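Input for the complex:
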Amino acid sequence: MKNINNYLYKKNDFLRYNVDNKEYVFFSDTLQIFKIDNEDLIDFFNLCNNPQKENNLKIENIKSLFDFLENSKKESKPIEKLSIDGLKLNSLIFHLTNDCNLKCSYCFIFEKENKEKKMTFNTAKKAIDFLLKKSPDEKTYSIMFFGGEPLLEYKLMKDIVNYSKKIMDERGKKIYFTITTNGTIFNNEIISFLKENNFNILISLDGPEDIHNKHRIYKNNKGSFSKIIELVELLKNSDISFNIRNTITPDNENIVCIMDFFEKSKLNYGFGFAMNSKEVNEKITSYKNNDIENFKTNYKKLIDYFYNKIINKEEIYNSNIPNCLLRIDAQIGKEAACTSGKSTLSITSDDSIYSCQCIINHNDAKIGNLFDGIDTNKHSVFQAQGVKNIIECQNCWCRYLCSGGCYYEHYIENNTTNIPAAFKCEITKIQWEYLIKLYHSVKNVLPEYFDTAKEITKYEKIPFIA
Amino acid sequence: MKRKEKKIEKFPKLEQINKGTLKHVFGGTACTGVCDGTIVAGCCYYLAGPLK
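Predicted:
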Protein backbone atom coordinates (compact mmCIF):
# COMPACT_ATOMS: atom_id res chain seq x y z
CA MET A 1 0.00 0.00 0.00
CA LYS A 2 1.36 3.40 -0.97
CA ASN A 3 1.54 6.46 1.23
CA ILE A 4 -1.88 7.94 2.03
CA ASN A 5 -0.94 11.18 0.23
CA ASN A 6 -0.95 9.32 -3.08
CA TYR A 7 -4.70 8.95 -2.68
CA LEU A 8 -5.53 12.47 -1.59
CA TYR A 9 -6.17 15.48 -3.75
CA LYS A 10 -4.10 18.51 -2.95
CA LYS A 11 -6.01 21.33 -1.30
CA ASN A 12 -6.09 23.42 -4.46
CA ASP A 13 -6.95 20.63 -6.87
CA PHE A 14 -10.57 21.23 -6.02
CA LEU A 15 -12.99 23.75 -4.59
CA ARG A 16 -15.52 22.41 -2.16
CA TYR A 17 -18.56 24.53 -1.44
CA ASN A 18 -22.14 24.51 -0.31
CA VAL A 19 -25.19 25.81 -2.17
CA ASP A 20 -28.70 25.50 -0.73
CA ASN A 21 -27.36 23.13 1.94
CA LYS A 22 -25.91 20.75 -0.62
CA GLU A 23 -22.21 19.97 -0.86
CA TYR A 24 -20.41 20.19 -4.18
CA VAL A 25 -16.88 19.78 -5.45
CA PHE A 26 -15.35 21.54 -8.45
CA PHE A 27 -12.22 19.89 -9.86
CA SER A 28 -9.56 22.38 -10.90
CA ASP A 29 -7.99 20.27 -13.64
CA THR A 30 -11.17 19.15 -15.42
CA LEU A 31 -13.68 21.84 -14.41
CA GLN A 32 -16.16 19.10 -13.58
CA ILE A 33 -18.65 19.65 -10.78
CA PHE A 34 -20.05 16.79 -8.69
CA LYS A 35 -22.49 16.70 -5.85
CA ILE A 36 -21.00 15.04 -2.78
CA ASP A 37 -23.88 13.35 -1.12
CA ASN A 38 -22.44 10.76 1.17
CA GLU A 39 -20.56 11.03 4.40
CA ASP A 40 -17.53 9.03 3.29
CA LEU A 41 -16.90 11.44 0.47
CA ILE A 42 -17.33 14.39 2.81
CA ASP A 43 -14.82 12.81 5.19
CA PHE A 44 -12.51 12.17 2.27
CA PHE A 45 -12.54 15.82 1.17
CA ASN A 46 -12.14 16.97 4.76
CA LEU A 47 -9.04 14.83 4.87
CA CYS A 48 -7.78 16.28 1.58
CA ASN A 49 -8.19 19.75 3.04
CA ASN A 50 -6.32 18.80 6.15
CA PRO A 51 -4.32 15.55 5.85
CA GLN A 52 -2.83 15.96 9.33
CA LYS A 53 -6.19 15.93 11.04
CA GLU A 54 -7.46 12.75 12.67
CA ASN A 55 -10.03 10.94 10.58
CA ASN A 56 -12.21 7.86 10.53
CA LEU A 57 -11.17 6.55 7.16
CA LYS A 58 -8.93 3.54 6.74
CA ILE A 59 -6.29 3.77 4.05
CA GLU A 60 -8.05 1.05 2.00
CA ASN A 61 -11.18 3.14 2.03
CA ILE A 62 -9.27 6.29 1.10
CA LYS A 63 -7.82 4.48 -1.89
CA SER A 64 -11.25 3.21 -2.90
CA LEU A 65 -12.73 6.71 -2.62
CA PHE A 66 -9.92 8.19 -4.64
CA ASP A 67 -10.26 5.52 -7.35
CA PHE A 68 -14.01 6.00 -7.36
CA LEU A 69 -13.65 9.77 -7.86
CA GLU A 70 -10.99 9.37 -10.52
CA ASN A 71 -13.27 6.94 -12.29
CA SER A 72 -16.18 9.37 -12.14
CA LYS A 73 -13.97 12.08 -13.58
CA LYS A 74 -12.65 9.84 -16.34
CA GLU A 75 -16.05 8.86 -17.66
CA SER A 76 -17.08 12.44 -18.31
CA LYS A 77 -16.34 14.63 -21.27
CA PRO A 78 -12.70 15.67 -21.39
CA ILE A 79 -11.93 19.29 -20.74
CA GLU A 80 -11.28 21.52 -23.69
CA LYS A 81 -8.06 23.32 -22.96
CA LEU A 82 -7.34 25.99 -25.50
CA SER A 83 -3.85 27.15 -26.15
CA ILE A 84 -1.77 28.64 -28.90
CA ASP A 85 1.91 27.83 -28.98
CA GLY A 86 4.07 30.35 -30.76
CA LEU A 87 2.74 32.90 -33.23
CA LYS A 88 -0.32 32.33 -35.35
CA LEU A 89 -0.74 35.89 -36.49
CA ASN A 90 -3.96 37.12 -38.04
CA SER A 91 -4.62 40.48 -36.39
CA LEU A 92 -2.82 43.77 -35.96
CA ILE A 93 -3.55 46.55 -33.53
CA PHE A 94 -2.64 49.96 -34.88
CA HIS A 95 -1.79 52.63 -32.35
CA LEU A 96 -2.63 55.53 -34.60
CA THR A 97 -1.69 58.01 -31.91
CA ASN A 98 -0.91 58.13 -28.22
CA ASP A 99 -2.68 61.46 -28.03
CA CYS A 100 -6.14 61.74 -26.55
CA ASN A 101 -8.65 64.52 -25.96
CA LEU A 102 -9.47 62.99 -22.57
CA LYS A 103 -7.25 62.42 -19.54
CA CYS A 104 -8.88 59.43 -17.87
CA SER A 105 -7.30 58.85 -14.50
CA TYR A 106 -6.69 55.12 -15.00
CA CYS A 107 -5.40 55.15 -18.59
CA PHE A 108 -2.45 52.84 -19.16
CA ILE A 109 -1.19 54.79 -22.18
CA PHE A 110 0.71 57.41 -20.25
CA GLU A 111 2.98 58.94 -22.88
CA LYS A 112 0.49 61.28 -24.42
CA GLU A 113 0.55 64.49 -26.43
CA ASN A 114 3.79 63.60 -28.16
CA LYS A 115 3.43 64.64 -31.77
CA GLU A 116 6.03 62.09 -32.86
CA LYS A 117 3.83 59.33 -31.51
CA LYS A 118 1.47 59.49 -34.46
CA MET A 119 1.54 56.71 -36.98
CA THR A 120 2.25 57.42 -40.63
CA PHE A 121 0.47 55.77 -43.52
CA ASN A 122 3.80 54.31 -44.58
CA THR A 123 4.17 52.48 -41.25
CA ALA A 124 0.65 51.08 -41.60
CA LYS A 125 1.43 49.82 -45.12
CA LYS A 126 4.60 48.15 -43.91
CA ALA A 127 2.66 46.52 -41.11
CA ILE A 128 0.04 45.10 -43.47
CA ASP A 129 2.83 43.72 -45.68
CA PHE A 130 4.36 42.20 -42.55
CA LEU A 131 1.04 40.59 -41.61
CA LEU A 132 0.59 39.03 -45.04
CA LYS A 133 4.19 37.88 -45.19
CA LYS A 134 4.03 36.34 -41.73
CA SER A 135 0.67 34.63 -42.26
CA PRO A 136 0.02 34.32 -45.99
CA ASP A 137 -2.44 31.46 -45.72
CA GLU A 138 -5.08 32.91 -43.43
CA LYS A 139 -8.47 33.49 -44.99
CA THR A 140 -9.47 36.32 -42.67
CA TYR A 141 -7.53 39.06 -40.96
CA SER A 142 -8.39 41.92 -38.69
CA ILE A 143 -7.11 45.38 -38.01
CA MET A 144 -7.95 46.99 -34.73
CA PHE A 145 -7.66 50.74 -34.22
CA PHE A 146 -6.50 51.75 -30.79
CA GLY A 147 -4.87 54.75 -29.21
CA GLY A 148 -4.82 57.16 -27.46
CA GLU A 149 -7.99 58.11 -29.21
CA PRO A 150 -7.86 56.66 -32.74
CA LEU A 151 -10.53 59.00 -34.11
CA LEU A 152 -8.12 61.92 -33.61
CA GLU A 153 -6.47 60.36 -36.67
CA TYR A 154 -9.63 59.68 -38.61
CA LYS A 155 -8.11 60.49 -42.00
CA LEU A 156 -5.24 58.08 -41.44
CA MET A 157 -7.65 55.41 -40.26
CA LYS A 158 -9.73 55.90 -43.40
CA ASP A 159 -6.64 55.59 -45.61
CA ILE A 160 -5.59 52.39 -43.82
CA VAL A 161 -9.05 50.85 -44.17
CA ASN A 162 -9.23 51.64 -47.88
CA TYR A 163 -5.72 50.38 -48.53
CA SER A 164 -6.10 47.16 -46.56
CA LYS A 165 -9.44 46.35 -48.20
CA LYS A 166 -7.85 46.77 -51.62
CA ILE A 167 -4.86 44.58 -50.72
CA MET A 168 -7.03 41.88 -49.19
CA ASP A 169 -9.51 41.96 -52.09
CA GLU A 170 -6.68 41.41 -54.55
CA ARG A 171 -5.70 38.29 -52.61
CA GLY A 172 -9.21 37.01 -52.08
CA LYS A 173 -8.99 37.53 -48.32
CA LYS A 174 -11.47 38.97 -45.87
CA ILE A 175 -10.61 41.76 -43.49
CA TYR A 176 -12.49 42.96 -40.42
CA PHE A 177 -12.08 46.22 -38.56
CA THR A 178 -12.60 47.10 -34.94
CA ILE A 179 -12.20 50.37 -33.08
CA THR A 180 -11.94 51.15 -29.39
CA THR A 181 -12.95 54.77 -28.90
CA ASN A 182 -13.77 57.13 -26.06
CA GLY A 183 -16.89 58.11 -28.00
CA THR A 184 -16.37 61.86 -27.89
CA ILE A 185 -15.15 62.49 -31.44
CA PHE A 186 -17.63 61.83 -34.16
CA ASN A 187 -19.62 63.39 -36.93
CA ASN A 188 -21.98 62.08 -39.58
CA GLU A 189 -19.12 61.28 -41.95
CA ILE A 190 -17.28 59.19 -39.35
CA ILE A 191 -20.45 57.33 -38.42
CA SER A 192 -21.24 56.57 -42.06
CA PHE A 193 -17.70 55.35 -42.64
CA LEU A 194 -17.81 52.99 -39.65
CA LYS A 195 -21.15 51.66 -40.81
CA GLU A 196 -20.09 51.19 -44.44
CA ASN A 197 -17.05 49.24 -43.36
CA ASN A 198 -18.94 47.08 -40.89
CA PHE A 199 -16.77 48.15 -37.97
CA ASN A 200 -17.03 46.46 -34.62
CA ILE A 201 -17.30 49.51 -32.39
CA LEU A 202 -16.34 49.49 -28.73
CA ILE A 203 -17.14 52.63 -26.75
CA SER A 204 -15.77 53.30 -23.27
CA LEU A 205 -18.51 54.28 -20.84
CA ASP A 206 -18.26 53.66 -17.11
CA GLY A 207 -21.86 53.88 -15.98
CA PRO A 208 -24.17 56.66 -14.84
CA GLU A 209 -22.99 60.26 -15.13
CA ASP A 210 -21.51 60.72 -11.65
CA ILE A 211 -19.53 57.48 -11.82
CA HIS A 212 -18.37 57.95 -15.43
CA ASN A 213 -17.31 61.55 -14.90
CA LYS A 214 -15.23 60.66 -11.87
CA HIS A 215 -12.46 59.25 -14.06
CA ARG A 216 -13.28 59.89 -17.72
CA ILE A 217 -12.70 63.60 -18.07
CA TYR A 218 -11.52 66.12 -20.65
CA LYS A 219 -8.25 67.95 -20.22
CA ASN A 220 -10.23 70.87 -18.75
CA ASN A 221 -11.59 68.44 -16.10
CA LYS A 222 -15.07 68.47 -17.57
CA GLY A 223 -16.81 65.11 -17.62
CA SER A 224 -17.31 63.33 -20.95
CA PHE A 225 -20.57 61.53 -20.14
CA SER A 226 -23.05 63.76 -21.97
CA LYS A 227 -21.01 63.76 -25.18
CA ILE A 228 -20.83 59.96 -25.23
CA ILE A 229 -24.55 59.63 -24.63
CA GLU A 230 -25.08 61.84 -27.71
CA LEU A 231 -23.08 59.35 -29.75
CA VAL A 232 -24.87 56.37 -28.23
CA GLU A 233 -28.23 57.86 -29.18
CA LEU A 234 -27.00 58.68 -32.65
CA LEU A 235 -25.71 55.14 -33.22
CA LYS A 236 -28.95 53.65 -31.92
CA ASN A 237 -30.96 55.88 -34.26
CA SER A 238 -28.66 55.02 -37.16
CA ASP A 239 -29.14 51.31 -36.52
CA ILE A 240 -25.42 50.75 -36.00
CA SER A 241 -24.49 48.04 -33.54
CA PHE A 242 -21.85 48.80 -30.96
CA ASN A 243 -20.78 47.63 -27.55
CA ILE A 244 -19.79 49.34 -24.36
CA ARG A 245 -16.65 48.71 -22.38
CA ASN A 246 -17.20 49.50 -18.72
CA THR A 247 -14.11 49.92 -16.57
CA ILE A 248 -14.43 49.21 -12.87
CA THR A 249 -12.05 50.83 -10.39
CA PRO A 250 -11.54 49.96 -6.71
CA ASP A 251 -13.45 53.11 -5.72
CA ASN A 252 -16.65 51.87 -7.41
CA GLU A 253 -18.59 51.05 -4.27
CA ASN A 254 -21.80 50.17 -6.01
CA ILE A 255 -21.18 47.87 -8.95
CA VAL A 256 -24.86 46.92 -9.08
CA CYS A 257 -25.79 50.55 -9.70
CA ILE A 258 -23.41 50.59 -12.70
CA MET A 259 -24.76 47.37 -14.17
CA ASP A 260 -28.32 48.44 -13.56
CA PHE A 261 -27.62 51.62 -15.54
CA PHE A 262 -26.51 49.60 -18.56
CA GLU A 263 -29.29 47.05 -18.22
CA LYS A 264 -31.96 49.75 -18.00
CA SER A 265 -30.37 51.62 -20.90
CA LYS A 266 -30.49 48.39 -22.93
CA LEU A 267 -26.86 48.79 -23.96
CA ASN A 268 -24.76 45.74 -24.80
CA TYR A 269 -21.80 45.94 -22.48
CA GLY A 270 -19.02 44.10 -20.79
CA PHE A 271 -17.11 45.13 -17.73
CA GLY A 272 -13.43 44.84 -16.98
CA PHE A 273 -11.16 46.21 -14.32
CA ALA A 274 -8.86 49.19 -14.64
CA MET A 275 -5.52 47.88 -15.78
CA ASN A 276 -3.03 47.68 -12.99
CA SER A 277 -0.65 50.56 -13.51
CA LYS A 278 2.12 52.05 -11.46
CA GLU A 279 2.65 54.95 -13.83
CA VAL A 280 -0.76 56.46 -13.22
CA ASN A 281 -2.14 56.85 -9.72
CA GLU A 282 -1.69 53.34 -8.33
CA LYS A 283 -4.53 53.85 -5.86
CA ILE A 284 -6.94 54.06 -8.76
CA THR A 285 -5.97 50.70 -10.23
CA SER A 286 -4.74 48.58 -7.35
CA TYR A 287 -6.98 46.72 -4.89
CA LYS A 288 -5.73 46.84 -1.28
CA ASN A 289 -7.04 44.66 1.55
CA ASN A 290 -10.04 46.86 2.35
CA ASP A 291 -10.86 47.22 -1.32
CA ILE A 292 -10.87 43.43 -1.70
CA GLU A 293 -13.29 43.02 1.20
CA ASN A 294 -15.54 45.73 -0.26
CA PHE A 295 -15.30 44.10 -3.65
CA LYS A 296 -16.38 40.77 -2.24
CA THR A 297 -19.48 42.33 -0.72
CA ASN A 298 -20.23 44.24 -3.89
CA TYR A 299 -19.73 41.28 -6.18
CA LYS A 300 -22.06 39.14 -4.10
CA LYS A 301 -24.73 41.82 -4.61
CA LEU A 302 -24.00 41.77 -8.31
CA ILE A 303 -24.46 38.00 -8.42
CA ASP A 304 -27.80 38.33 -6.60
CA TYR A 305 -28.82 41.04 -9.05
CA PHE A 306 -28.15 38.82 -12.07
CA TYR A 307 -29.68 35.78 -10.41
CA ASN A 308 -32.96 37.68 -10.11
CA LYS A 309 -32.78 38.86 -13.68
CA ILE A 310 -32.10 35.33 -14.95
CA ILE A 311 -34.83 33.57 -13.01
CA ASN A 312 -37.30 36.32 -13.91
CA LYS A 313 -36.34 35.66 -17.54
CA GLU A 314 -35.41 39.28 -18.13
CA GLU A 315 -33.21 40.21 -21.05
CA ILE A 316 -29.56 40.59 -20.04
CA TYR A 317 -27.33 43.05 -21.86
CA ASN A 318 -24.15 42.16 -20.00
CA SER A 319 -21.79 39.69 -21.65
CA ASN A 320 -19.46 38.67 -18.84
CA ILE A 321 -21.90 36.93 -16.52
CA PRO A 322 -23.75 34.80 -19.12
CA ASN A 323 -20.46 33.90 -20.82
CA CYS A 324 -18.91 32.81 -17.54
CA LEU A 325 -21.96 30.68 -16.72
CA LEU A 326 -21.80 29.05 -20.14
CA ARG A 327 -18.12 28.35 -19.66
CA ILE A 328 -18.78 26.68 -16.34
CA ASP A 329 -21.63 24.67 -17.84
CA ALA A 330 -19.50 23.49 -20.77
CA GLN A 331 -16.32 23.02 -18.68
CA ILE A 332 -14.31 25.31 -20.92
CA GLY A 333 -10.87 25.72 -19.45
CA LYS A 334 -8.13 27.74 -21.02
CA GLU A 335 -4.41 27.22 -20.80
CA ALA A 336 -3.76 30.91 -21.34
CA ALA A 337 -5.88 33.97 -20.74
CA CYS A 338 -5.10 36.03 -23.77
CA THR A 339 -3.99 35.62 -27.34
CA SER A 340 -2.19 38.95 -27.62
CA GLY A 341 1.29 38.14 -28.84
CA LYS A 342 -0.05 34.87 -30.22
CA SER A 343 -2.59 35.79 -32.87
CA THR A 344 -2.38 39.57 -32.43
CA LEU A 345 0.48 42.04 -32.45
CA SER A 346 0.52 45.77 -31.70
CA ILE A 347 2.19 48.21 -34.05
CA THR A 348 3.27 51.67 -32.90
CA SER A 349 4.14 54.83 -34.77
CA ASP A 350 7.91 54.18 -34.70
CA ASP A 351 7.51 50.82 -36.53
CA SER A 352 7.91 48.91 -33.28
CA ILE A 353 6.14 45.64 -32.57
CA TYR A 354 4.72 44.84 -29.16
CA SER A 355 2.77 41.78 -28.16
CA CYS A 356 0.07 43.68 -26.30
CA GLN A 357 -1.64 47.02 -26.81
CA CYS A 358 -1.36 47.88 -23.13
CA ILE A 359 2.40 47.54 -22.91
CA ILE A 360 3.51 49.93 -25.63
CA ASN A 361 4.91 52.55 -23.25
CA HIS A 362 7.39 50.02 -21.88
CA ASN A 363 10.42 50.00 -24.11
CA ASP A 364 11.77 46.83 -22.47
CA ALA A 365 8.69 44.98 -23.69
CA LYS A 366 9.27 45.75 -27.36
CA ILE A 367 9.55 42.43 -29.20
CA GLY A 368 10.71 43.68 -32.58
CA ASN A 369 10.18 46.09 -35.43
CA LEU A 370 8.78 46.05 -38.95
CA PHE A 371 12.27 45.98 -40.53
CA ASP A 372 14.01 43.24 -38.56
CA GLY A 373 11.01 41.20 -37.50
CA ILE A 374 10.48 39.61 -34.12
CA ASP A 375 13.06 38.79 -31.50
CA THR A 376 11.97 35.28 -30.58
CA ASN A 377 13.53 35.37 -27.11
CA LYS A 378 11.68 38.53 -26.16
CA HIS A 379 8.52 37.27 -27.79
CA SER A 380 8.58 34.14 -25.67
CA VAL A 381 8.60 36.30 -22.54
CA PHE A 382 5.99 38.83 -23.65
CA GLN A 383 2.94 36.72 -24.24
CA ALA A 384 0.53 34.92 -21.97
CA GLN A 385 2.69 32.41 -20.12
CA GLY A 386 -0.08 29.94 -19.53
CA VAL A 387 -1.08 28.10 -16.42
CA LYS A 388 1.71 25.54 -16.67
CA ASN A 389 4.42 28.20 -16.51
CA ILE A 390 3.08 30.17 -13.58
CA ILE A 391 4.04 28.68 -10.22
CA GLU A 392 1.21 30.42 -8.36
CA CYS A 393 -1.32 28.76 -10.67
CA GLN A 394 -0.20 25.28 -9.62
CA ASN A 395 -1.54 26.04 -6.18
CA CYS A 396 -4.78 27.64 -7.25
CA TRP A 397 -8.14 25.93 -7.70
CA CYS A 398 -9.31 28.35 -10.39
CA ARG A 399 -6.27 28.11 -12.64
CA TYR A 400 -8.09 26.98 -15.80
CA LEU A 401 -10.91 29.48 -15.35
CA CYS A 402 -8.60 32.44 -14.74
CA SER A 403 -6.08 30.90 -17.15
CA GLY A 404 -3.09 32.64 -15.65
CA GLY A 405 -4.37 36.20 -15.87
CA CYS A 406 -3.00 39.16 -17.77
CA TYR A 407 0.74 39.10 -18.40
CA TYR A 408 0.89 42.87 -18.78
CA GLU A 409 -0.39 43.24 -15.25
CA HIS A 410 2.09 40.63 -13.99
CA TYR A 411 4.86 42.62 -15.63
CA ILE A 412 3.73 45.92 -14.16
CA GLU A 413 3.39 44.48 -10.68
CA ASN A 414 6.37 42.12 -10.53
CA ASN A 415 8.59 43.04 -13.48
CA THR A 416 8.13 39.58 -14.94
CA THR A 417 5.33 38.09 -17.00
CA ASN A 418 4.98 34.89 -15.02
CA ILE A 419 4.30 36.09 -11.50
CA PRO A 420 0.75 37.35 -11.05
CA ALA A 421 -0.31 40.41 -9.10
CA ALA A 422 -1.54 38.91 -5.84
CA PHE A 423 -4.52 41.25 -5.51
CA LYS A 424 -5.75 40.33 -8.99
CA CYS A 425 -5.59 36.63 -8.03
CA GLU A 426 -7.75 37.45 -5.03
CA ILE A 427 -10.46 39.31 -6.91
CA THR A 428 -10.43 36.70 -9.66
CA LYS A 429 -11.00 33.86 -7.22
CA ILE A 430 -13.79 35.79 -5.50
CA GLN A 431 -15.57 36.22 -8.81
CA TRP A 432 -15.25 32.64 -10.01
CA GLU A 433 -16.36 31.21 -6.69
CA TYR A 434 -19.50 33.35 -6.75
CA LEU A 435 -20.06 32.53 -10.41
CA ILE A 436 -19.88 28.80 -9.72
CA LYS A 437 -22.45 29.23 -6.94
CA LEU A 438 -24.63 31.31 -9.24
CA TYR A 439 -24.34 28.52 -11.78
CA HIS A 440 -25.85 26.06 -9.31
CA SER A 441 -28.58 28.44 -8.20
CA VAL A 442 -29.66 28.98 -11.80
CA LYS A 443 -29.28 25.32 -12.73
CA ASN A 444 -31.48 24.29 -9.81
CA VAL A 445 -34.26 26.73 -10.60
CA LEU A 446 -34.08 27.27 -14.35
CA PRO A 447 -31.97 24.59 -16.06
CA GLU A 448 -33.24 25.60 -19.50
CA TYR A 449 -31.47 28.96 -19.09
CA PHE A 450 -28.28 27.44 -20.41
CA ASP A 451 -29.82 26.58 -23.75
CA THR A 452 -31.48 29.98 -24.00
CA ALA A 453 -28.27 31.81 -23.13
CA LYS A 454 -26.46 30.03 -25.95
CA GLU A 455 -29.07 31.31 -28.37
CA ILE A 456 -28.90 34.83 -26.97
CA THR A 457 -25.15 35.11 -27.26
CA LYS A 458 -25.36 34.08 -30.92
CA TYR A 459 -21.72 33.18 -31.01
CA GLU A 460 -20.09 32.49 -34.26
CA LYS A 461 -16.63 31.18 -34.61
CA ILE A 462 -14.38 34.19 -34.52
CA PRO A 463 -11.71 33.85 -37.17
CA PHE A 464 -9.02 35.34 -34.98
CA ILE A 465 -8.93 32.54 -32.52
CA ALA A 466 -6.94 29.41 -32.91
CA MET B 1 -19.35 3.67 12.58
CA LYS B 2 -21.95 1.61 10.78
CA ARG B 3 -21.52 3.57 7.58
CA LYS B 4 -17.85 2.58 7.43
CA GLU B 5 -18.93 -0.95 6.68
CA LYS B 6 -20.58 0.10 3.48
CA LYS B 7 -18.88 -1.18 0.35
CA ILE B 8 -17.53 1.90 -1.37
CA GLU B 9 -17.56 0.17 -4.76
CA LYS B 10 -21.33 0.08 -4.41
CA PHE B 11 -21.66 3.86 -4.35
CA PRO B 12 -23.97 5.10 -7.03
CA LYS B 13 -21.87 6.72 -9.72
CA LEU B 14 -21.35 10.43 -9.10
CA GLU B 15 -23.34 12.45 -11.55
CA GLN B 16 -21.54 15.33 -13.16
CA ILE B 17 -23.57 18.53 -12.82
CA ASN B 18 -22.04 20.60 -15.62
CA LYS B 19 -22.29 18.70 -18.87
CA GLY B 20 -23.19 21.46 -21.32
CA THR B 21 -21.55 22.09 -24.65
CA LEU B 22 -20.66 25.20 -26.58
CA LYS B 23 -19.90 25.37 -30.25
CA HIS B 24 -18.23 28.74 -29.82
CA VAL B 25 -14.50 28.51 -29.32
CA PHE B 26 -13.39 30.78 -26.55
CA GLY B 27 -10.24 32.76 -26.72
CA GLY B 28 -9.09 36.01 -28.18
CA THR B 29 -7.20 39.07 -27.18
CA ALA B 30 -8.31 40.71 -24.05
CA CYS B 31 -8.44 44.35 -24.95
CA THR B 32 -9.54 44.92 -28.46
CA GLY B 33 -12.92 43.55 -29.00
CA VAL B 34 -12.51 39.96 -29.94
CA CYS B 35 -12.09 38.25 -26.64
CA ASP B 36 -14.68 36.00 -25.12
CA GLY B 37 -15.74 38.40 -22.44
CA THR B 38 -15.29 36.00 -19.62
CA ILE B 39 -12.00 37.30 -18.37
CA VAL B 40 -12.92 38.46 -14.94
CA ALA B 41 -9.60 39.93 -14.04
CA GLY B 42 -7.18 41.80 -16.18
CA CYS B 43 -8.06 44.05 -18.99
CA CYS B 44 -10.86 42.49 -20.97
CA TYR B 45 -11.72 45.26 -23.37
CA TYR B 46 -14.18 42.72 -24.69
CA LEU B 47 -16.89 43.48 -26.80
CA ALA B 48 -16.79 44.63 -30.12
CA GLY B 49 -18.68 41.37 -29.96
CA PRO B 50 -18.56 38.43 -32.26
CA LEU B 51 -17.19 39.66 -35.52
CA LYS B 52 -19.65 40.07 -38.30
